Amino acid sequence: MSTTSQKTILFLHGYTQNASIFRAKSSALRKKLMKLGYNCVYLNAPYVLTPADLPTSSDGDSSLSKFGSVASDAEHHITYRGWWIKPNKGNDFVEIDKSFDAVKNYINKGEILPDDEEIKKENIQIKKEAENEQKKDKEATEGKKSEEVVGIIGFSQGGAFANLIAHNFNTLFNTNTSLKFVILYSSFKLDTLKRAGNEKYMSYYPLGQDDLDQSSTRYLHVLGELDTVVDESRSLAIYETTKSRSDLLKHPGGHFVPNSKVYVDQVCNWIQSVTTDEVEKSKNGTNDNGVKDETNKFSQKDTKDDIDDLLAMMDGFGKA
């Protein structure tokens, strides 16, 4: 069998999730991407969260249900992870070195940090589904000798980390090409001001319009209009950092990755549009402006006909 390039998309889960949880929560998107020929790889964040790191409600009880990481009756059997630990429940003075290593180890060695939680009855099904999908992925890509990471899909804190590494991805991880696209769900920008103690990460972002203009990476920012975990102003702030190379898609929901067909199709159509070469675009009569206009039009036009379907599927959406 001839050698071909295997196009891989890295999935980075949210704070208090892990690879298995995010895999289950983004199943509809993953299955559609696999049909389009992409290899979907879910990485585990390296920082294991302790009870003190977990979000709490005003009465002191765990608020993981708000983050939607897992069903409440399974909380004690899951290893919760983060791309960085939140000192004092915030995002100041964070340490991310191990997260860079986690991505680097996959790209260079194909290594993924394992889910080390004790599997109980509550999440056995998630594990089985993940193993079956991994088997299908392997069978589907058999004979493909080379791998190219073409995109990253990140959720919440995973999206914030994806945005941090996207602009200089090929330099950071010694790849031959830059990322083609990054999709950020309910994400935010790490505060790199000196007062936040994260100024060492400032250079990871585009240093100005000229720097951004030299990039070939495209960004799609997806945010929920009812998100109470990452409010719209924070998501729009990260959008502004790459605005000239970004598209924006809103959905009438909260802090989750929408799995309804209308939004999965919209995201996959966007991926197809930004990864299609100019010749094919010309044949299809599409261009970057047309794609962006359609995305914005979709987010602004009346979506009433789709809301019932969206709300009916909310229990299956990925949060956190």
Automatic annotation (TrEMBL):
One of its GO terms (cellular component) is nucleus. InterPro entries: AB_hydrolase_fold (IPR029058), FSH-like_dom (IPR005645), LovG (IPR050593). Keywords: Hydrolase. It comes from the Eukaryota. Residues 290-302 have a biased composition (Basic and acidic residues). GO terms for molecular function: hydrolase activity. Gene3D superfamilies: alpha/beta hydrolase. Pfam families: FSH1. The keyword Hydrolase applies. Residues 5-267 form the Serine hydrolase domain. The keyword Hydrolase applies. Coiled coil: none annotated. Residues 278-302 are annotated as: Disordered. PANTHER family: ESTERASE OVCA2. This is Serine hydrolase domain-containing protein. The lineage of its organism: Eukaryota, Fungi, Dikarya, Ascomycota, Saccharomycotina.
